[in-house]
Structures are given as C-alpha cells and as structure tokens.
Hints:
alpha/beta; UDP-N-acetylmuramoyl-L-alanine:D-glutamate ligase; nine-stranded mixed sheet; four-stranded mixed sheet; 13 strands; 37% helix
Amino acid sequence: MTARVTVIGEALVDLLWPAGAREARAVAGGSPANVAVGLHRLERPATLLTAWGEDPPGELVREHLAATGVDVRRVASGAERTMVALAYLGGDGVASYDFLAAWDPRELPVPADTAVVHTGSLAVVLEPGAARVLDACRAQRRQGRAVAADLNVRPAVQPDRDAYRAACARLAAEADVLKASDEDLAWLYPGRAPAEAARALLDAGPRLVAVTLGAAGALAVTAGEEVRVPAPAVEVADTVGAGDTFQAALLDAVAAAGGPPQGREALAAVLARCAAAAAITCTRVGADPPTRAELEAFDRA
C-alpha cells in the first residue's frame, strides 16, 4: 500500500460543549486533520499540510498531531492564531459549530509520491488561504493526480449562501471526487433532494459525488449511476468526526483503485465500507476513527 494521500487544510481545537454541561472540553481536531488521522489508521500513507499558531490552542494541536503518527508538514502562515471551533453537542450527539478562524498558508508543498490530494472544509472558503488551496488543486490535477474534496459546509464562516455556493462550484470544477452531507446540500440548495443537489455539483466537473445521509446511510452519483447504501445500526455516542471518517475511507478506496470506483457493484461496496467506518466513529466520543483491523472486524460481524 504505497499510494499517498496528501491532505491540505486546517487543524484546530474543538471546544466540545455537551447539552446541559457547564464546561467545554478542548480537543484537537479539524476536518482535514481528522481525515489524515483516519487515513493513517487505515494504513494508508498520508501527509497533512496545515498550519497553527504559537498559542495555547496551537500547542494542543502540535501535541495531538505528533501523537497520531501522521506525516505532518507545518507550512508557513500569515495567520498568527490557531483556529478554534466551539462545538455544541445536542442531546442526540449531533454537533453545531461556531468558529474563531484564520487560514493563510503561504506555501503548499505536495510530496512527490502523492497519488491523491484532498481538501475541503474551512480551507476552501476562508481567504486568503482558500484561493491558494484552489490553485494547488488545479496544479496537482494538471500533473495527473486525483483531487478530492469534502464541502463540510460551515455557514458560520460564510453566511452568504450565494457566495458559498459559488465557492463550492469552483472547488467542484477542480475535483475528481466530491463529498458532502445531506445537511450541506440542504443549506446550499434549499428545497432540492440530496440526489438532485448532488447532480448539480456533478455537472460542475467531478466524476463522483458522494453524500452522507446520517442514519439513512449514503448515496453516490456518477454520470451513469446512482447508488444508495444503508447505515449500520449502532448506538450513537456522538457524530463528531463521522463525516471525516467516511471521507478517509473513501480516499483510501480512491488511492487503492487509482481513481473513483467504477461500476455499480464497486461503488456500492466502497460506500458500504465508508458507512461502516463512520458508524464505528459514532459509537465513540469525539473524532476517533477506526483502524483497518477494527473496520475489517466490523465488516465481518
């Protein structure tokens, strides 16, 4: 297993605040960082290009990433502070977010052995960094590398729906694989069913758009297929990191195959594996993706 996935995006500190609690708990995370950790646990070579500040949240990020085993490249940044997300956890374990955000990477050196480049979340909407990330994706795709992205829509950082939708369309035009949640699509395309919204994104350029549907499972659309899979029934601790785990499993499959899965059966198998990985994460507190061995054991059960 040698095909590397390089992840570009933020590492931050989540302040997890459960319903009814009087204090928040600081946990290092961030969607791209979580995806890189998920890939590493699936034994996929992964590099994370990210930035953090010289501040207490940055020290927590540094310690966390150092302990994960992921190949982390801290890039030069014009932002002095580390991103912080306040994650409110409802009684059902679902999180809503607010952000203290800054993203200004000055360089994005992608390793030469990279097969797939992944980005998304705040890194593709927060300027001035978002424009540099988009330029990097465009350049990597021209060099023959697959590009994948997770929209991970955060209206708290860009409440203008039209501007956010335009940013997503620009990203979709540079991606081979695009992932979103049904909540992402409901906000971007009010009134449209998830599959219809996914096809609107597919028209912008990707070969595959995958959509997570929470407890209803997941769907994916390509030019010729629409596939749905159910979600495994599990006892949910919280949903933090579930979408990132799904994306890590999807990237692992794309790297293994040299591109998006082809054909209905292959696509359904990949989606089912991604949904299983996300389900395991939902049984745990916080973003805690499974190892390859744990996922294989879950699939056999």
